[in-house]
Amino acid sequence: MSILMEFVQAIPHTCSEVALALTPIVVIFLLYQIIFMRMPRRQLLRMITGIVYTFLGLVLFLVGVNVGFQPAGTEMGRALGGSESKWLLIPVGLVLGFVIVFAEPAVAVLNQQVASVSGGAISTKLMMGVLCVAMAIAVALGMIRVLTGISIWWIIIPGYALALIFMKFSPNIFTAIAFDSGGVSSGPMTATFLLPFAVGATEAIPGRNPLTDAFGMVAMVAMMPLIAIQLLGIIYQFHLNRAELSAEEVASLGDEDDLDDTDSTTDIASAQDVNDAQSPSPSEEAIHES
User: Fold this and answer.
1) CA–CA dist 18, 59 (Å, integer)
2) Rounded (5°) CA angle 86-92-98
3) I need a labelling partner for 161 at 20 to 30 A (CA). Which of 82, 113, 152, 169 fits?
4) DSSP string spanning 239-251?
5) Residues 164-203: pLDDT tens digits?
6) Residue 149: exposed, middle, or buried by beta-carbon count in 10 A (0-12, 13-18, 19+)?
7) Which DSSP string corresponds to 119-175?
């Protein structure tokens, strides 16, 4: 019963936070509706219903992650950090980073929008797979920081430098998607589960400071999609260039075959003309016989 009361007691505070976050959006929508859009009543009711569902969904989601996931992440980190097999933090973080992307609501929305805008060229499965791998690597790097105590600068500076270099070679659409992916990947699940997981691990490992060794996880989670999505764009551009080059080679071979056929036809016609010129006409044959 006490566990249920913890969730119930968190509802009022969460409702006020969600209401504060949604109020500016609702006010702007109402102003546009009154001044510019003037949508039909049916469409307006659908919008209002959607806002109500969004409010309720965010309240339930945030209560769940704040009251349920956050303590669970902290306890998991403490248990692994305090055990003799501290190295398990790396593979466990790898798995957690891979699967937690599926729970991020903003990631699903972004993937659907990318698939719609690109006409299916960048599918939701491809985007989800790349983001899962990127998140797994980011969390594993965070756990390496927790175990070794290395400074975050040794990861962040080379990572963002590599992302900036990739911008020169990656198509623009992949660069834009990469930066948006970095934002949506570091969503509420990362802040309420992965970060407490790192904090709990640093609290259990002697000589580690949560302020310097755990915080920074969100920064790495936001960084890795920049690298992964742009790398995907570079690979995509490479295969596209190869396909275009192959098509040009096939077209050039086809032109050479046509030219050879034309030359063969011309040679045959020339040989026929020579034979016609060398063969005597009927009148010449008659004179020769007489």
Assistant:
1) 7
2) 155
3) 113
4) HHHHHHHHHHHHH
5) 999 999 888 888 888 888 888 887 778 788 888 888 999 8
6) middle
7) TTSS-HHHHHHHHHHHHHHHHHHHHHHHHH---THHHHHHHHHHHHHHHHHS-HHHH
